[in-house]
Amino acid sequence: MENKGSDEVEKMKTKFLSAWHNVKYSWALKSKTSFSRNSPVFLLGKCYHFKVEDDDSPTEACYETTEEDSIMGNVEDFRKDFTSRVWLTYREEFPTLPGSTLTSDCGWGCMLRAGQMMLAQALVLHFLGRDWTWSEALTLQPLDTETWTTTKAKRLVASLEASLQTPNRPSHQGAPSLHQAQAPGSAEEADEHLKEMYHRSLVSWFGDSPSAQLGLHRLVRLGLTMGKQAGDWYGPAVVAHILKKAVEEAMDPGLAGITAYVSQDCTVYIADVIDSHKAPGAGQTSASPQSDRPEPSSSRAVIILIPVRLGGEKTNPDYFDFTKSILSLEYCIGIIGGKPKQACYFVGFQDDSLIYMDPHYCQSFVDVSTSDFPLQSYHCPSPKKMPFSKMDPSCTIGFYSRSVQDFERIKQELSKVLQPSAKEKYPAFTFVQGHGKDYDLSAGLTPEKREWPFIRDPRRTVTTAGDFVLL
C-alpha cells in the first residue's frame, strides 16, 4: 500500500510540474525580433541582405514582413531558409520516459532538444542538401504575437469546421493531389516528391515515442548509461556523446550511411575521423537526393561534434569573431549552448547578436507513426536573437563531413579559422594527427568528468590565459 501511495504522489507531482511548465513556457507572450537592414545576416553558411540599393527606410526592421517589406533585399529568402530548419521543442502528453514517470520534458529537456535540432540539420545536409527549403515554409504564421493557447483554439475551430463540412464533400476529394504525389508527371516533380519523403522521414526519426530512432525516449535511455536521468540537466558535452551513441545504434536503414564522432579534450584526431568515414559491409549502396549516383557503403558521412569552452564564467570576447567564422560555413550544423541552464540552438548571427532557435516552447505530442502527421509544429517561423556577451562559454560545435575528401577540405579551412590572431591567442580546438587511443587521455572518465571536456595530457605544456586554462 505504501508503494502504491508513493507512486500516486509521484504521479501527482509529475502532473503538477507539467502543468506549471506548460503555463511558464506556453502562455508567455514572445517579443518580436528586429533585424538591421544595414548589416548582412548569416544563417548556417548562407548570407542574406535585407537592404537594396537606394533604400532610405529605417535601419531597424521587424522580422514579420509586409508586402512592402517583401521587396527589401532577400528577406523572404531568409525567412524561408530559417523556417525550413527542423525545430524540436518541449512536448507534453507523450509516453512515459525510461526510468521515470515523466510524460513531458518541460523545464529540463532543452539541451536534448537543441542537440536534436543540430542533428536534424546534419541529416538535412546529408539527404537534402543545404539549398533545400520546405515548400510550405512561408505559409506558417509567426509565433511572436500570439499565445500557444490562441493557436490551439484556432486549430480546434478549424477542425470543427472541417468536420462539419466533410459530409458535403465527395469522398474522393483530395485524391488527385495524392495521386499526383505518388506518380509525379515530371522529373522535377519526382525530385520534389522524393525530397518531401526524406523530409517527413527525417522528422519522424525525432518523434516522442520509444520506437523513434533519434527521439527523446532513445536519448534519455542512452543518458541513463552515463548517469543521467529524465529530469536532470544535460550539458552540451554529455549531449554530444548521447547523440553519437544514438546515431551509431540507429537501426533504420536510412541512417546506415552516416555516423558521428565526438572530439576528445578539444582535439579532433584526424585518423579517428577518417576511420569513421569507412563503413563496414562492402558491396551495398546508399543514395540521397543530393547525389546523382549511389554512394558505396564503404564510405559514410560523419557528424563531427566538438565540445568546447570559450572562456571561464563568461564567454571571452576574443572568441566572438571565431564563432562568427564558424557559423559562416555551410558545413557547420550549428552550435548547441545558450544561457546558463537555458539551452538553445545557435544557427547564425547579425552584427553582435546570435540568431537561435528556441526549444522552450511547450507543444502537444504528435504521433509521427501516421503517414500524414502534421509537420507545422516542427518548423519555427520566428527567429530569436541574443547578444554574444550572454552566450554561455560551454557549448558543442557541429560539422557535417560527407566523405574523406570532404573532411580534408574542412580540416584545411578550419585550420585557417583556428589560426591564433592578435586578440585570440589560443584556438578553441585543434586537429592532431593519429588516433585518440594513442594518447589515452579520456580512459576511465566518469560521466561527471566527461561533462568537462578539457582533460589535458600532463606531459604537454599548459599555459594559463586570464580566467581559464587552455593549451
> What is the helix tally?
12
Low-pLDDT sequence parts: 63-72, 144-183, 282-287, 291-296, 447-471
What average pLDDT do the residues reach?
A: 79
The number of E-state strands comes to 19
What profile does the largest beta sheet have?
9 strands, mixed
What is the alpha-carbon Rg in Å?
A: 23 Å
Outline: globular
Question: Could you describe the 3D structure shown?
Answer:
The chain has about 475 residues and is α+β, with helices and mostly antiparallel strands. About 35% of the residues lie in helices and about 15% in strands. The chain has 12 helices and 19 strands. Strand 12 and strand 13 (about 355) form a beta hairpin.
How does the SSE layout of this entry go?
Blueprint: H1 2-26, E1 34-36, E2 41-43, E3 46-48, E4 60-62, H2 75-84, E5 91-92, H3 110-127, H4 148-165, H5 175-182, H6 187-204, H7 216-224, H8 236-249, E6 258-262, E7 267-269, H9 270-277, E8 285-286, E9 295-296, E10 301-309, H10 320-327, E11 332-339, E12 342-350, E13 353-357, E14 363-364, E15 384-387, E16 394-401, H11 404-417, E17 430-432, H12 447-450, E18 463-465, E19 468-470
Parallel strand pairs: 5-14, 6-10, 7-17
Antiparallel strand pairs: 1-4, 2-3, 2-12, 8-9, 10-16, 11-12, 11-16, 12-13, 13-15, 18-19
Helix pairs in contact: 3-6, 3-8, 7-8
